[in-house]
Amino acid sequence: MALAAYEKQYNDRLRVPEHAKIQAAWVQQAEEYRTGKNVELDIPYGSSERNKYDLFHPENHNDETPFALFIHGGYWQSRDRKMFSHVARGLNALGCSVAIPSYDLCPDTSIPKIISQMRKCAANIWQQYAKKPLVYGHSAGGHLAACLVSTDWTCHPGLPGDLITRGCALGGIYDLAPLRGTTKNDALKLSKEEARLASPLFRPVAKSAVRFIAAVGEFESREFHRQADALARFWNAQEVETETLTIAGANHFTILDEMQNPDSPLLQKIVEG
To answer: I need a labelling partner for 272 at 20 to 30 A (CA). Which of 189, 202, 210, 265 fits?
Structure first.
């Protein structure tokens, strides 16, 4: 594919002219949701100022309440957790606590270091709450969710080898190589080798009993659909249960609406045992 074509395929703002209005609504909804009860804010998981997460509990939560970890998008170079608090609404309604972290951003850091930060966040949830979180994320956060699912946790002393076995990505990117031919790489600074090493599409999943959903909006670009299909083929070939799911009527931004609706078929699939 020509470089100009890659730019068009991965520039979601160009594809969705109303993106600013959608994201302004996110900010308002997130601010409102943070004012609710059962909310813990600014919990540190690392040394950086951005290495913190907010935690949203369902009503009547207790020691048996399951945990989830939602990772925001922004092409690894923008946004933070405060813009996505409302995403916890759906899983909270289904009885699940949701942690939403921020992470350091490119170009001040690298994608491999962001992956390490998200591993540290997942480890913190285990260490603080003895919970093995379901992990899900949007766009770049979908990439990071897939990275956590494919992590060999047996290489991390003090953590269970099955720390994360379930995940979901909404509009995820699993092969980073195409981004090297776009303006996104001005901040990402991905080399050919680094792009491959950081791509879940080329990472073998080191354990069994893993389940992953690669969701994509109906109106997302061909590349986002291709990425989801490619990951499913690769992981299913390794006997990792990986399902693609197209969300009717959704684009790269409105697909997040699914996370607020506890009756969403996608959300129901996410919480299936």
So the answer is: 202
